[in-house]
Structure to design on (919 residues):
């Protein structure tokens, strides 16, 4: 009988032995080594073992009797230390075994981030029974805390299981959303929401710097300085094929052991199967392909023809209540099209990717009942041209209904606030409607909802439609863009009342019909989120128009203009010298602008960080001449010099600009302060214009001098400079919180009414609240973007590669 | 095909783009999703706008100068606008972005 030695009693080699001994029990005399002190068990079921839903005994695949019945010599708990191919022997810790045929089934090992502290006791991987036991033990202490590094399949299964055991669990994930290899953002958002519902804390974009502890794990330090206390740290950041032994034996290697379609290595008597294999450049990390390999290898060893083929894979997460499915390849392809279906009320998201009338990828969350059917379509490459329209509804639903534009409002909980001015929630409005208030006027009269600034009118109308059904015809409102039926005002209100704090949350909960918006809605939604949740939301440069992303104005020839701030129009000789030097150095054209500052035009993109750095070094910051944000505060010389000046208009202008710069607004905001009614700073045609008079300050708002020319209207008059600043800041914040994206203040005021605006700003308590929220936002956004980009993103301004420099082929 | 390694995909922000200078002109590498990259000419057929500076949504990019929208699969302008940008074979391997060498070589430039 031929001697077969197998290294590793894992899931792949286990399946191989089943096929082999079933087909021809007498073919080989088998010796099986395993480093783990046990035979083959169902490794993928370690998750339920960890959560306590299953015991180890229940997941054993091959027990002692199984091996005995098949005459397999088991050397468990013994590691193979070398293979001598010349002598055809395998060298184990307890001695040698000769072979005729040899199989590597050594699997993978968990990758451990080599950060300081990674070797402290209490840092574990999630790979085998020992790891599982260590985690179970740690969870035994009441109040114990676990930090799981890695928000992929393994990390999340570990996190959910540890949470079930009562631990306080935090998941750290490097990327912007969970399971980013398998899910898109919308599905990742829903998954995160479900995990958070069970009490798991999820931190995305979290990079581990160090694991700390004295003799054992005590805490995890993140790059951003956050410290998380931890009694156990689970590293689940990836796996690496375990192939050192094969490499030392001199087999042909890629990233793992190279095999052909018959699972043969570069040595005709040596084979490999499972995660330690590389086939046509592919590595494997799920059991389905390993089982195919095991079948092929069994036939190869019995001298029968067969060939392994790489097939499509699908992913599911073994966490009860998190129904997700992902399959197919989203990474490459030509002529593709997306079909998206969202049901905010039921937390469902489905996305299909179609190419040449074939389904090539699918992501689903919340409802995966039809996933096998979709997977079949992907795997078999079936032509779906005939069912394209109704495909997303699954096999049982051909010819299904279109998504309901009212679903976002229908999905709102009764306590969601609809009218911010009067604090009216959805429940009260529906009650009023059911009580007989069947039109807008009646709802306003009974509940006051939408009776003040009126921006929630659209939502109240939709509630009427949802509650009254066909009996109510909603007036057609202008939707934000093709991705949604909601208006800007609706979206703003819903972001507040549903506490939506990320773009994927908005897309999902408000039923966007595209995977990730378009160039019209993305900048608007990005602004709404950063204005409403300055501390929670992270500004997304990829949702900004080029000028705001590159912090400079793009010109028609692709160069940029650079304009430093000149607070209140004041400058000095050293600033002017630095500007002159920069103009020389970067070949810029110099222009004095209509906004009392100096523009450097024609700067190349690659040179932006350089010129910014030079201007920064001279004490200047970005002028935001490119932003929907604070632009200039023009001033006149005022009481400092002018014989008519009544107050220090220059000083007030500088103070205002210092307070307001860096803030993002729905459209640009320009201010001016004139020292007397002669108004040399043209304050009466600005968004906010202050005219100084003997008795104090006249504050006007809603002026314009662009496409429309408008004189300001008087907001209020105040006696002191301090009050003038307070009123201005409060007005800007009110505008930030309420206006539609791309409405200048005069347009917004025309919609909500100056009286309403004045009421808010003049009322001391409301004003104080507005100022407080503005200042909170400024703690995040009043930073010079030039300095930040010079320090952190300099490389991004250069091309990724310059292939023209390479030597000719 | 022979592939040129342009570097790790993480050098391109998700829904962002980076520029590559080649013998056939500047090419934008558009990262439309976590693991999805397209390569297409950087120059807008309308008035030469730098497409790598546009907003990227779905598998499309909007030109930063006058909002023409291009499908990155086919290079075709969308909607009422007429025009096309060249697209180039690109693929991902092990988190690195590979561009087809031939399509951007001097020969294809000639
Ligand atoms: C540089 C400057 C012209 C100049 O050389 O003086 C200028 C240049 C541009 N203006 Fe302006 N505006 C400039 C002062 C003005 C003024 C006068 C003022 O601020 O006192 C106005 C009228 C006042 C007003 O805004 O109400 C003005 C009304 C506009 C408008 C019309 C806005 C409107 O709501 O009607 C636009 C278009 C827009 O923003 O959508 C615009 C847009 C532009 C853009 C950004 C066009 C664009 O999108 O590329 C120009 C950028 C050129 C560049 O690359 O730098 N610019 N622009 C001025 C810069 C002032 C500064 O120091 O920041
Ligand atoms: C918690 C968890 C959940 C999972 N869930 C899923 C899932 O839901 N779906 C899915 O498809 N996949 C899942 N997987 C992945 C799946 O378990 C693996 O793909 C599969 O186990 C790999 O099989 P293998 O035989 O290649 O390696 P393994 O099962 O790892 O077996 C390799 C064996 O070789 C031994 N060994 C290594 N070197 C030596 C040596 N020098 N001497 C002796 N013995 C050695 C090791 O000790 C090990 O026992 C999961 C994995 C884990 C850890
Ligand atoms: S008026 Fe303003 S927008 Fe028009 S060309 Fe002059 S700078 Fe450009
Ligand atoms: S240059 Fe691209 S749209 Fe005009």
């Amino acid at each position: 009988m031929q001697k077969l030695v197998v290294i590793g009693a894992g899931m792949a080699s286990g399946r191989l032995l089943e096929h082999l001994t079933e087909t021809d029990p007498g073919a080989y005399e088998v010796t099986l080594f395993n480093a783990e002190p046990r035979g083959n068990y169902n490794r993928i079921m370690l998750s339920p073992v960890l959560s306590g839903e299953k015991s180890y005994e229940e997941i054993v695949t091959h027990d002692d009797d199984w091996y005995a019945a098949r005459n397999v010599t088991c050397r468990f708990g013994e590691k193979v230390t070398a293979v001598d191919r010349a002598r055809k022997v395998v060298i184990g810790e307890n001695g040698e075994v000769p072979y005729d045929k040899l199989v590597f089934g050594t699997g993978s090992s968990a990758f451990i981030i080599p950060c300081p502290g990674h070797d402290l006791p209490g840092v574990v991987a999630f790979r085998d029974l020992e790891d599982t036991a260590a985690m179970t033990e740690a969870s035994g202490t009441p109040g114990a805390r676990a930090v799981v590094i890695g928000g992929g399949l393994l990390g999340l299964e570990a996190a959910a299981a540890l949470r079930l055991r009562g631990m306080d669990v935090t998941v750290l994930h490097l990327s912007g959303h969970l399971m980013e290899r398998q899910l898109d953002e919308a599905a990742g958002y829903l998954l995160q929401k479900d995990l958070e519902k069970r009490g798991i804390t999820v931190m995305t974009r979290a990079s581990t710097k160090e694991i700390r502890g004295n003799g054992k794990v005590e805490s995890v330090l993140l790059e951003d300085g956050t410290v998380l206390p931890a009694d156990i740290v689970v590293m689940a950041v990836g796996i690496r094929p375990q192939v050192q032994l094969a490499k030392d034996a001199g087999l042909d290697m890629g990233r793992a052991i190279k095999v052909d379609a018959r699972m043969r290595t570069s040595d005709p008597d040596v084979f490999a199967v499972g995660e330690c294999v590389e086939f046509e450049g592919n590595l494997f990390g799920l059991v389905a392909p390993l089982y195919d390999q095991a079948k092929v290898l069994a036939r190869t060893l019995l001298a029968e023809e067969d060939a392994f083929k790489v097939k499509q894979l699908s992913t599911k997460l073994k966490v009860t209540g998190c129904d997700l499915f992902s399959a197919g390849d989203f990474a490459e392809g030509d002529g593709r099209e997306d079909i998206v279906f969202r049901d905010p009320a039921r937390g469902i998201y489905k996305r299909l990717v179609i190419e040449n009338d074939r389904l090539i990828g699918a992501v689903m969350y919340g409802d995966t009942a039809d996933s096998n059917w979709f997977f079949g379509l992907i795997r078999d490459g079936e032509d779906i041209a005939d069912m394209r329209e109704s495909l997303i509804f699954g096999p049982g639903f051909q010819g299904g209904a279109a998504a309901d534009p009212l679903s976002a409002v229908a999905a709102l909980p009764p306590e969601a606030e609809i009218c911010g001015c009067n604090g009216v929630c959805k429940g009260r409005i529906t009650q009023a409607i059911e009580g007989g208030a069947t039109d807008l006027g009646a709802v306003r009269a009974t509940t006051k909802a939408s009776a003040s600034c009126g921006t929630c009118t659209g939502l109240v109308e939709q509630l009427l439609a949802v509650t009254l059904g066909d009996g109510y015809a909603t007036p057609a409102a202008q939707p934000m863009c093709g991705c949604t039926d909601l208006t800007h005002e609706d979206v703003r209100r819903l972001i507040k009342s549903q506490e939506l704090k990320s773009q994927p949350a908005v897309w999902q909960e408000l039923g966007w019909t595209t995977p990730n918006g378009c160039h019209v809605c993305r900048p608007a939604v990005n602004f709404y989120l950063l204005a409403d949740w300055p501390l929670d939301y992270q500004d997304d440069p990829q949702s900004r128009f080029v000028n705001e992303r590159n912090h400079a104005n793009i010109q028609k020839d692709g160069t940029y203009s650079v304009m430093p701030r000149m607070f209140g129009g004041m400058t000095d000789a050293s600033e002017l010298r630095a500007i002159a030097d920069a103009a020389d150095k970067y070949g810029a054209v110099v222009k004095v602008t209509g906004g009392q500052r100096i523009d450097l035009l024609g700067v190349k993109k690659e040179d932006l960080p350089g010129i910014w750095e030079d201007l920064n070094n001279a004490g200047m910051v970005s002028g935001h001449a490119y932003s929907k944000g604070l632009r200039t505060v023009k001033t006149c010389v005022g009481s400092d010099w002018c014989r008519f000046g009544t107050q220090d208009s220059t000083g007030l202008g500088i103070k205002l600009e210092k307070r307001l710069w860096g803030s993002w607004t729905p459209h640009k905001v320009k201010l001016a302060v004139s020292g007397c009614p002669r108004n040399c700073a043209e304050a009466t045609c600005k968004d906010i214009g202050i005219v100084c008079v003997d008795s104090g300050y006249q504050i006007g708002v809603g002026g314009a001098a662009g496409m429309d020319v408008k004189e300001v209207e008087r907001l209020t008059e105040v006696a002191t400079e301090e009050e003038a600043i307070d009123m201005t800041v409060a007005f800007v914040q009110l505008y930030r919180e309420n206006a539609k994206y791309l409405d200048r203040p005069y347009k917004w005021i025309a919609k909500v009414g100056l009286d309403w605006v004045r009421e808010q700003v003049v009322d001391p308590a409301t004003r104080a609240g507005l100022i407080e929220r503005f200042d909170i936002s400024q703690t995040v956004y009043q930073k010079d973007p030039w300095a930040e980009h010079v320090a952190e993103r300099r490389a991004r301004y250069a091309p990724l590669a310059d292939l023209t420099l390479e030597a000719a082929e | 095909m022979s592939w040129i390694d342009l570097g790790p995909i993480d050098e391109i922000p998700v829904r962002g783009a980076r520029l590559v200078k080649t013998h056939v002109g500047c090419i934008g590498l558009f990262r439309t999703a976590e693991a999805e990259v397209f390569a297409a000419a950087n120059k807008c057929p309308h008035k030469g706008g730098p497409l790598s500076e546009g907003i990227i949504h779905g598998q499309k990019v909007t030109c930063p100068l006058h909002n023409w929208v291009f499908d990155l699969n086919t290079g075709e302008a969308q909607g009422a606008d007429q025009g096309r940008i060249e697209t180039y074979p690109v693929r991902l391997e092990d988190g690195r972005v590979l561009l087809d060498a031939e399509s951007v070589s001097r020969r294809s430039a000639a």
